[in-house]
Design brief:
The protein is built from 11 helices and 16 strands. By secondary structure, the chain is an alpha/beta fold. The chain has 2 domains: 242 residues, TIM Barrel, CATH 3.20.20; 86 residues. The C terminus is likely disordered.
Amino acid sequence: MDTTASRTHFDPAAPRRLADGVPPHWKGAPLGAPTSLREFAASGLDALGGDLPLPLLLLREDAVAHNVARMARFAADNGVLLAPHAKTTMSPELIARQIEAGAWAVTAATPSHLNTLRRLGVQRILLANQLVERAAIRWLADELARDSTFELACLVDTLDSVALLDRELRAAGAPRPLAVLLEVGTPDGRAGVRTLEEALAVARAVSDGAALELLGVECYEGLTTSGASVPEMLATVDAYLDAVAAIADGLDDAGLLATRLISAGGSAFFDRVLARFPRPAWRVVLRSGCYVSQDGGFYDALSPLSGRGHDPEPLRDALELWGVVLSRPQPGLAVVGAGKRDAPYDDGVPRPVAWRSADGERGRDARRVRHAPQRPAHDDRPARRRLRPRRRRPRPLRRLALLRGLRLLARHPARRRAAP
């Protein structure tokens, strides 16, 4: 896999082929007959004016453009390669934007992701998981034979996974060796070697195989955090990265690393990765993905390009979920037509931040739309929001409520919110 190339490539016509229409059964699609995306974009429909059925998840164009450009500049300024995780959106259009902004590769999590990215024409992919399904390995061998420019790297962490991958690739007639990264995990964590001895054994097995080549080391620091405060989280992340560095140095001392390459970095602690693996001594590949849409909660507090880093050009929240206020059944309570299926949150329920009335009046008055002191209800269908009591008679029913603070497109295990 070429680590000197500036960025990967994709087929510009693929997004148009993959998105051929907006069928009526899509959530938020215009009621009635199907329409094409081009017709939909040119229709002049007002998303918040009653032309589209609610609830609606909206992506702010200005915020997305800013976030993609900001992360690309960060990578270039720090001399690192960016391989954004596609699972965050699995959107051909957004993935194309990241590539056009300079992404060196695109990261995938599953064989299905690989297939989608190949249909998009992505040339260089990092599979941040082990490849152990025989059908998927045979498909990969066929892709490598069909396209001589296609590059892929996946993870290995056990002798069995190395033996399986090497055997199946050779049996399928793979035309060239497959690049692999040796994953380093944590005790009781997810996949990855735990000790230097295990790492040395796996790396030697890769070297002895005919169908594999060791590209570098891989880790994910985002699941190692513990503690309720940011300093405590940073301490656990740094300790994990120290352990990863010790294993990587051991592999290098044994002559098993052709390239001093480390792939790491979620969207909260990637600055700690850069601090532990200085360039140019290390070639660093960041796999951050959630920066595209950012988050009104977790990442706002922890991202080095947001609250924790005090960046002069911070990432911006790009997701907005609008739902109609269905009822005001009692004083101080609003029932909003947006629930768990519209906001599959993983770190805190959505927070209401704005409203818009039926006549177009808008507001972001936190005194009017706010969380209750207790945890707000977020039901299977409607969400219930407490409103601050008013001494005078409440205004007529508000039409829309904006709920933000969502990580809707990235599905990570639930985390405890950090105290600043």
